[in-house]
Design a protein that fits this description.
The protein has four helices and 14 strands. With 246 residues, it is of the alpha+beta class. The strands form two sheets. Strands 2, 4, 5, 6, 7, 10, 11, 12 and 13 form a nine-stranded mixed β-sheet that branches. Strands 3-1-8-9-14 form a five-stranded antiparallel β-sheet, with no helix packed on it. Strand 8 and strand 9 form a beta hairpin. The chain is globular and about 50 Å long.
Length: 246
């Protein structure tokens, strides 16, 4: 986890939900029922353009972090997740987790349970109501191939933090996203707080509490194809087409 998720909430509703200002090109994003690696997704973050004032903003980011020192964007697809156990030690994530943390809103996420042989059954894991606030980190990367006057030369990218699953989800997969409640979000986004150890402890505790309230339901196999992107992907009725196989 996390390899696919649902981000179908309107930008206006996200801005209201997270008390954020829509910025950049985020208004261009369309609802997605099958977010895949390298897709552009909404993220909530803090900017400090005029210190000491901080502004919470909603931006469009590429899902899959591109380190600031990367020569190209090819690493993005392999860096959609960061393990909470090692995020503070990895060169690509050490700086972002200390100073550039974000939230990736989602209605829920997909996970695949292994069955007999190569069989896998997809599940949609979601809260009873409302949205998930997935803890993440972000980075700005300057595309060296873009002209200096190109307004798109700076690329915003992000990764989702993952942790061990709560007991109720462990039978599906051995990882789950780090999930925050409304109470933890201000501390997580606060760029003036560089106490990484305390922040990660806060995130672990929140994930355990939020995770116990999640529901998991089987869905159909169409979600496995990134070209499929429609509301029916989260329909439990479609799951009857796919046997567990073990």
């Amino acid at each position: 986890m996390c390899g696919r998720y649902v981000a179908d909430t309107s930008i206006d509703d996200l801005a209201a939900e997270f008390d954020a200002i829509a910025a950049g090109t985020v208004a261009e994003l369309m609802p997605s029922y099958n977010v895949a690696p390298t897709d552009r997704v909404p993220v909530v973050l803090e900017r400090t353009d005029e210190p000491p004032e901080r502004t919470r903003q909603l931006h469009a980011a590429r899902w899959g972090l591109i380190p600031s020192w990367a020569k190209n964007s090819g690493t993005a697809a392999t860096m959609i997740n960061a393990r909470i156990e090692t995020v503070a030690d990895k060169p690509a994530f050490r700086g972002p987790v200390a100073r550039r943390r974000c939230v990736l809103p989602a209605r829920g996420y997909y996970e695949w349970q292994r069955g007999a042989g190569r069989t896998k059954r997809p599940y949609f894991i979601h809260p009873a109501g409302g949205l998930l606030a997935m803890a993440g980190v972000f980075e700005w990367w300057r595309d060296p191939s873009a002209p200096a006057d190109d307004p798109h030369r700076w690329v915003l990218s992000a990764s989702v933090l993952t942790t061990a699953p709560v007991p109720g989800l462990a039978h599906i997969h051995d990882r789950m996203p780090v999930l925050l409640t409304a109470e933890e979000i201000p501390d997580w986004l606060d760029r003036s707080n560089e106490d990484t150890g305390a922040l990660l402890d806060l995130a672990r505790s929140a994930a355990g509490r939020v995770g116990t309230a999640l529901a998991a339901r089987p869905v159909g196999p169409d979600v496995g194809n990134v070209r499929n992107n429609h509301a029916g992907l989260v329909d439990e009725a479609a799951a009857a087409q796919l046997p567990l196989g073990g």
